[in-house]
């Protein structure tokens, strides 16, 4: 299985000193989500420290942050490696997403403003446009999250949104691979996103949350099957 990659640990400018741990974590997270650092790949501290021009201390703190998010694993006598989720773990992530996101959307729908819906519409349009061009692979996850989070924000459930985003980060690289290699999934997801947005416009909280739950669970089942095939 291959993913678009610009190469691991390319030279770049030094990280700003004032937020070292956060900045290092953000940049490593972005490399993982873009597929530049692939599942099972070892993260070599000396190479990353040299690239980012930081000491080992903020780098180790960034590793611990990413481990808490589930993106990397720290293994005794081997160091940090990019996490590789099993097909069953991927399906479980999507089941958790379905439960949390459907509840959050149900809370949000009655509170959605015209501005919220317009923001969701713009994000969805940008996402659909990006999906038509494989060169935009690295922004698919970001735009997908912008669409969903635009609908959830009105729920005013800060902790839930933070947890949902963490789970989406864990699933993002697999979501993009699925879309990249399965255009049928892309077309079906597009239609379902549009239907969810329309139900939100109609302020039908129950129908919107039910469709969202079905949409995510189905995607999880498809993702599980897809990853089983790819790894065989």
Helix content: 55-70%
Distance between the termini: 10 Å
Strand order of the largest sheet: 1-3-2
Whole-number mean pLDDT: 85
What is the string of helix and strand elements?
Answer: HEHHEEHHHHHH
Q: Give me the number of helical elements.
A: 9
> What is the multimeric organization of the chains shown?
single chain
Low-confidence sequence ranges: 1-9
Portion of residues in beta strands equals under 5%
As a whole number of angstroms, the C-alpha radius of gyration is: 18 Å
Overall spatial form? globular
Let me know the number of strands.
3
Structural class: mainly alpha
The main β sheet shows up as:
3 strands, antiparallel
Give a structural overview.
This protein has 232 residues and is mainly alpha-helical. It has a three-stranded antiparallel beta sheet with strand order 1-3-2. It is globular, with a radius of gyration of 18 Å. The N terminus is likely disordered.
Structure characteristics:
232 residues, mainly alpha, three-stranded antiparallel beta sheet, single chain, disordered N terminus, globular, 9 helices, 3 strands
């Amino acid at each position: 299985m291959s993913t678009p990659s610009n190469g691991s640990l390319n030279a770049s400018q030094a990280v700003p000193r004032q937020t070292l741990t956060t900045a290092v974590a953000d940049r490593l997270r972005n490399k993982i989500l873009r597929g530049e650092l692939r599942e099972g790949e070892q993260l070599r501290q000396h190479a990353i420290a040299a690239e980012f021009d930081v000491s080992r201390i903020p780098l180790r703190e960034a590793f611990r942050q990413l481990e808490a998010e589930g993106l990397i694993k720290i293994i005794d006598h081997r160091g940090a490696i990019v996490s590789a989720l099993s097909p069953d773990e991927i399906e479980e992530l999507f089941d958790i997403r379905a439960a949390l996101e459907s509840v959050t959307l149900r809370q949000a729908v009655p509170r959605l403003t015209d501005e919220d819906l317009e923001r969701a519409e713009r994000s969805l349009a940008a996402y659909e446009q990006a999906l038509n061009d494989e060169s935009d692979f690295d922004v698919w996850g970001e735009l997908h999250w912008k669409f969903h989070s635009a609908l959830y924000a009105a729920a005013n459930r800060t902790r839930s949104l933070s947890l949902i985003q963490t789970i989406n980060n864990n699933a993002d690289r697999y979501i993009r691979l699925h879309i990249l290699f399965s255009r049928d999934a892309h077309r079906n997801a597009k239609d379902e996103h549009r239907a969810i947005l329309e139900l939100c416009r109609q302020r039908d909280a129950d129908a919107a949350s039910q469709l969202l739950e079905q949409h995510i669970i189905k995607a999880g089942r498809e993702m599980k099957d897809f990853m089983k095939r790819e790894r065989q």
